[in-house]
Amino acid sequence: MGMTMTQKILASKAGLDSVKAGQLIKARLDMVLANDITAPVSINEFEKAGFDSVFDKNRISLVMDHFAPNKDIKAAQQCKQCRTFAKKFDIENFYDVGEMGIEHALLPEKGLVAPGEAVIGADSHTCTYGALNAFSTGVGSTDLAAGIKTGQAWFKVPSAVKFDLRSNLSEGVGGKDVILHIIGKIGVDGALYKSMEFMGEGLSSLSMDDRFTIANMAIEAGAKNGIFKFDDLTRSYTEEHIKNASGGFGERKWISYDPDPDAIYEETHIIDLSDIRPTVAFPSLPQNAVTVDEIESLGSCGKIFGITADKKGRIRLDQVVIGSCTNGRLSDMAAAAGILKGTHIAKDVRVIIIPATQKIYRECISRGYMETFIDAGCVVSTPTCGPCLGGHMGILAQGERCLATTNRNFVGRMGHPDSEIFLSGPQVAAASAICGYIKTPEGEQK
Amino acid sequence: MNAKGYVHKYGDNVDTDVIIPARYLNTSDHRELAVHCMEDLDRDFVKKVKKGDILVGGENFGCGSSREHAPIAIKASGVSCVIAKSFARIFYRNAINIGLPILECEKAGENICNGDEVAVDFDSGEITDLTKNEKYTALPFPDFIRNIIDKGGLLKSIEKTKEK
Question: Average pLDDT, stretch B41-54?
Fold first, then answer.
């Protein structure tokens, strides 16, 4: 019986010739990851269990990205606990302030994930690495403690949903629009416990950054993982980045996996990329997808998903955030800078831009994006997850409204439970920052 | 093992951000987390909840973040078990790993009302709504997961396997 990409990787990691959906397996892990808010819970459990060794000091990544640089004393204590653990076990890939970036942008950049590998992370957006044809999934801190100790994890082999991508993306439309469109179509539990497998001729019009963004939000459809078919772009990205990996890790062998021709997919969705328009998810679920065209034709006091436009038919904003593990990569910064160059943001809007890693931050300086952002009236932060999860660096007050390139618009996610979060890609976010209300990027109007 | 308590009922897609908002994730202390349990969904939950009470949810309970702080906060608030129509997968794993009993049952999630008194038999998966005098049966745990629960959680199951 044929296997999906995910099933092939899991079979290989479990040392089995084949696996089928529903089977419980124990798989070897190539990398285990935690951050400054999930690692402390893992470390507590690790110590409580009396463990005194880790499975492989080169295959553990600890990234201080959520509440770092430390937002308060308690956050500082948590980072200190991680630092002490990393020193004690000589963890090779411990990334502290100065080196760290948002974990799911950082690990691929550092060459720590390659095709065919199996990764668990105590962070739900660990599914990002599926863009590289790897199996990666989020787990909790206890699963992670077990992973740190044994280098293994148990999994129920998932069934799968196929996304057959056709045609090409239009100008000004990116990976975020694709995934918001898909979640709008299948819902926040549309792929519950399943793999979302992306393939088809349309793949060639998606950059690696587009693919990271799409795989990143597989969890927002409830999926166990998202995974992309391997192609020349995956190969060149992997070869370019893997050699940077430290600890002799750059020499490792990797193998890509295609789905079998007779692999079983419970559902197939054909996605014509040329049909996708700039898309925004309305509060308070990522499935509340609305195209910018629909927003612009709302009319005076028009209502959609419980949000009422003003008399001019506009959805006004108090804040815009461009960053996160979803859209804080260089192409996102380039898209925002391209729109903001030579302009100024609207008077009553605060705009926070967060390049996801130090490397991206530096590149923003050398390419002149930083000057563009600052001249436009934006603030630029050091890498951090910060406002995405309501941690720090841009918390919302009661009744405030934010358009963010992040991944979740749940109640209270960015601050006060009575604030509202809209999700979009960087183009819509930047164009809206200039106007002060949600708007299609210039030149994109129908 | 059994549980009996009064029900606090919520809807579909109860996410981990409302179970325990991220602004409180600067601690891993169970008691501190419990004080803020369900805060952004039901501000009075911590005042109302009594030891042994039961949470009932709709579809996709525990969706969103992987934070283990969510089932920890629920357990530390005194809740004896969670019943839902379906659970998000990371929450499901986390609850089992930390020893918070969870039961998946479409009908129970639909019919049980806020404030009902409910009794649960974990061995048989039988859920009894004592207020309405109705019975439901939850999906049984696979043996593999039952084994983790019986050994007292994931890490204890690793230690015990190693000792053999």
Answer: 97
Residue partners of A236: CB distance under 8 A and separation at least 6: none
CB of A13 within 8 A of CB of A27?
yes
**pLDDT at residue B149 tops 80:** no
Taking each helix axis from N to C end, the angle separating A208-216 and A232-242, rounded to the nearest 10 degrees, works out to 90
Burial of A339 (0-12, 13-18, 19+ CB in 10 A): buried
Take residue A435 and report the two structure tokens written for it: 């106007």
Cα separation, A71 vs A81, in Å, equals 15
pLDDT at B151 over 90: no
Q: In whole angstroms, what is the distance from residue A57 CA to residue A78 CA?
A: 20
Tens digit of pLDDT for each residue in A131-170?
999 999 999 999 999 999 999 999 999 999 999 999 999 9
**Identity at B164, one-letter amino acid code:** K
Q: Does B88 touch chain A (CB under 8 A)?
A: yes
What residue ranges of chain A have pLDDT lower than 50?
A: 444-446
Per-residue pLDDT tens over the stretch A251-303:
899 999 999 999 999 999 999 999 999 999 999 999 999 999 999 999 999 99
Cβ of A222 within 8 Å of Cβ of B25? The answer is no
| Tokens describing residue A132 | 């590289």
Burial class (CB in 10 A: 0-12, 13-18, 19+), B14: buried
Q: Is B43 exposed, middle or buried (0-12, 13-18, 19+ CB in 10 A)?
A: exposed
pLDDT tens readout for residues A97-138: 999 999 999 999 999 999 999 999 999 999 999 999 999 999
Nearest Cβ partner for A140 among B17, B23, B94: B94
Provide the pairing of β-strand A303-304 with A307-308. antiparallel
**Between A37, A124, A140, which is nearest B64 by CB?**
A124
What amino acid occupies position A293?
D
Task: Report how far residue B39's alpha carbon sits from residue B45's, in angstroms, rounded to the nearest whole number.
Answer: 7
From A46, A143, A417, residue closest to B40, measured CB to CB: A417
Q: Backbone phi, then psi, for A42, in 5-degree steps?
A: -65, -45
Provide, as residue numbers in chain B, all residues whose Cβ is less than 8 Å from the Cβ of A395.
Answer: 23
Can you give the pTM of this predicted structure?
0.97
Q: How many Å apart are CA A278 and CA A173, to the nearest integer?
A: 6
Which residues neighbour A403 within 8 Å (Cβ) at sequence distance 6 or greater? A280, A317, A319, A320, A321, A421, A422, A423, A424, A428, A429, A432, A433, A438
Q: Which of A347, A128, A311, A369 has the alpha carbon at shortest distance from A225? A: A128
